[in-house]
Amino acid sequence: MSDKNFEPRHLETLDRDLDRLSSLETANSFIARPMAAPALAAAFILLAGLFAAFLVDGSSGALVIVLAAAIGAYMAVNIGANDVANNMGPAVGANVLTMGGAIAIAIVFESAGALIAGGDVVSTVAKGIVSPESTKSPEIFIQAMMAALFAAALWVNIATWIGAPVSTTHSVVGGVMGAGIAAAGFAAVNWPTMVKIAASWVISPLLGGVIAAGFLWFIKERIIYRDDKIAAARTWVPVLVGIMAGAFSAYLALKGLKKIVKIDFTVALGAGLLIGIAVWLILIPVIRRQSQGLENRNRSLKTLFSIPLIVSAAFLSFAHGANDVANAVGPLAAIVSASSTGDFTSAISIPFWVMMIGAFGISFGLFLFGPKLIRMVGSEITKLNPMRAFCVALSAAITVIVASWLGLPVSSTHIAVGGIFGVGFFREWYAERRLLRARQAVPDKPYHTASERRQRKLVRRTHAMTIAAAWVVTVPAAALLSAALFFAIRLATG
């Protein structure tokens, strides 16, 4: 090889070619990355259909069940992409969990909740939203449920795409309502139940926000703004974690373990009280040891709340897997029951293989698409630290208990997001209150003007408007999609 091949101009050409190749590889990776997740999700949906085909081979309505299983898998993937963010977002936003750690914990506990304690019985489809008898025939009933399931999945997918955490249960309810109206008219809908669900749009976030703000006020007043923060933490952190343990014990008893054992409200509350007292007593020496050598500042307090926050995120995921997944795959179970037996008016048990599709679909959706909503919930609404995130997680459990006691329908999604907004708006109010006190104490000192304070708001209003609009639109949007899909199915099979 001659030396001229190594002349500077040739080396420059080679460098440019290598740069082009490197740029091409980088561009290809950015193109392939967005395409990989949908491709893997599509492969899972196809496998779910093949799995169902293997199980129902030769049975009546096999083709319908296979198609419904694929749609159910699509719904489960969307639940993982959207709904699970509410459980893990606060812990990730507070930097207590990494994204990978949060996804790993959520996958384990969501799946465990769905497979161990989920899907006992879905009494009349979607809990009485539409009377099955009004649909007149199994064929119409199956078509309505197919449309409801597909519409709910589409709406949750759209909400995830625009970055809005929505209630998957409300999406299913809207889908069932729209298909029911299309199939049997407005008289088929249980309107009193729909009014309660509409009321929960306001009740859930308000309750969650008020309770989360109340606990944050307590932590600020009793721990953060004390002269000796560590001494205050030794007194009150065991109490707060005991309350958390008791609340989550009652929450899991009411919402997460109903398949294993039936527990009424009074027994669940009593068990939660005893567990809370036990945890409080156990943690007194533990927190004393853990706090030894800590500096008297807020950064030290964060370490005392980190482990309770991780545990609360795991408990929330287990309860979500046990409770909400059953609601989401309810239409799929109804289709399987009606296709296999022809009976579409009795209570519907969810087969284990249907729960498997739901559990694994949620895990898959969370792994592929979950980080987007986890980041939004955890860090883009307001800034969270372990104390604030702890208040959000605790409010979710307590709000469900209070709502069960009052007989009010609530959404876990709305509670968690409402808690985050509650914490953020409380911090704004509390900062203004402290500023007012400082002005009264030292009136001559210069302070921020009103316009400067407005620019430093602690809650992003654009996210508040987007999320609120998505919540209000969820039921009617899912209903309209479902009605349109029902008519399309009728025309196609007509």
Amount of helix: over 70%
Largest sheet: none
Mean pLDDT: 82
Helix-strand category: mainly alpha
Any low-confidence stretches, pLDDT <50, length ≥5? 27-32
The SSE order reads HHHHHHHHHHHHHHHHH
- N-to-C CA distance: 75 Å
How are the secondary structure elements laid out?
Layout: H1 8-55, H2 62-82, H3 85-93, H4 99-117, H5 125-128, H6 138-162, H7 168-184, H8 191-224, H9 229-256, H10 265-290, H11 298-328, H12 330-341, H13 352-380, H14 386-406, H15 412-441, H16 450-455, H17 461-493
Helix pairs in contact: 1-2, 1-13, 2-6, 2-12, 2-13, 3-4, 3-11, 3-13, 3-14, 4-11, 4-13, 6-7, 6-12, 6-17, 7-17, 8-9, 8-14, 8-15, 9-10, 9-11, 9-14, 11-13, 11-14, 14-15
Written account of the structure:
The chain has helices spanning 8-55, 62-82, 85-93, 99-117, 125-128, 138-162, 168-184, 191-224, 229-256, 265-290, 298-328, 330-341, 352-380, 386-406, 412-441, 450-455, 461-493. With 494 residues, it is mainly α. Helix 6 (138-162) runs antiparallel to helix 12, helix 11 (298-328) packs across helix 14 and helix 14 crosses helix 15 (412-441). It starts with 7 loop residues before the first helix and ends with a helix. 49% of the residues are buried.
Task: Give me a quick take on this structure.
This protein has 494 residues and is mostly helical. 80% of the residues lie in helices and 0% in strands.
Features:
mainly alpha
